[in-house]
Amino acid sequence: MAGKSPIVRPWRAIPDEDRDCTRLFFKDENLFFPTDRSVDFMIRGAVCWPATVGSGVDTATEGFVLLAGQELATRRIFVFEQQSFVSIDPIMDPETQRIIYDGITHKLAQWWSRYYADVYYWHDHMDTHMRYLRQLLNSPLLHPTPSFSEVIWHDQSQAEHALFELVTHARLIHWAGDDYENGRGQPLYHALLAFRDEGDINGSSRKAKVLPATKAAMALAMGFEKYPWRG
Questions:
Q1: How many domains would you assign to the chain?
Q2: Residue 24: which pLDDT band, with cuts at 50, 70 and 90?
Q3: Residue 24 and residue 76: Cα distance in Å, rounded?
Q4: pTM value?
């Protein structure tokens, strides 16, 4: 399997609205999915809206969005897509007319056509959520607009446990990408490592380093737990 991604992207998707799932078809050899028949998934995304990260000269604004499918037969969750972002629509340099930031509208539209992804989990301040939701609703570049389902937790340790339980039990497979060796280079991989090594998971008193990718993954884990497939 050298040179292959552990998670290949499907070449076709067929929604099954009656069962609230999507049938994905894979044609490239891979570690998980058959190439001669469809695999049923509950498709969901998760988003962390842009926030300030870092400090000093390293201060930046960043958000993160994930697209995943829970395989109905095994309940394993596969992260097919992941993307950091700073804006909803593309931002262009007025002088050069070049795109400075891509935004996420084109990604959300692409993921709709590739996976029929129409629900994204979120956990944030309501004012922050409404600010970015209004931008999405007003964007001329996005159709259809997905819906957003709030995932509430009152103690961050709840979300931490839900996420790392999936990781520990090998039920969250997140090495997405087009090349096997690039799997470890994905932002989510490094965000989870930083959270594990610098956080409070193993009883340390240090404050957990929650990067946007980790926060999106927490929302994803809690969303699948709180709203399981009931087809």
A1: 1
A2: very high
A3: 15
A4: 0.86
